[in-house]
Design a protein that fits this description.
Largest sheet: 2 strands, antiparallel
Shape: flat
Strand content: 5-15%
Order of helices and strands: EEHH
Number of helices: 2
Structural class: mainly alpha
Helix content: over 70%
Distance between the termini: 52 Å
Number of strands: 2
């Protein structure tokens, strides 16, 4: 997979053609930037909430941490996966009804 040129070894995709790869990475980061920001902000909201409860004592802190973890794992994950499932299901239904109507 590696090409030899004199003393240096170069990868075929990163050699002189790296401008295309760099441009693609820039485009992907530009599109994914808002998603990354929202994810970080949602996580920081949960962390800040637990930090505020930490001022009340160790028992409320542990209760808030468990509640936040439970809500994050069961509730938010369920909602996101269900929305993805419903989107895929509605696409499938709309695609298959074209053949039967």
């Amino acid at each position: 997979m590696k090409e030899e040129r004199g003393d240096a070894l170069t990868w075929p995709l990163i050699g002189e053609k790296s401008s295309g790869v760099k441009e693609e990475v820039k485009k992907q980061l530009w599109l994914a930037g808002p998603l990354i920001a929202v994810s970080l902000l949602q996580f920081s909201l949960q962390v800040i909430s637990v930090m505020f409860v930490g001022h009340l004592g160790s028992l409320p802190l542990s209760a808030a941490a468990v509640a936040t973890s439970f809500a994050s794992i069961t509730g938010f994950t369920f909602l996101v996966s269900f929305s993805s499932l419903s989107h895929s299901f509605t696409d499938f239904i709309s695609f298959t009804t074209k053949f039967f109507l």
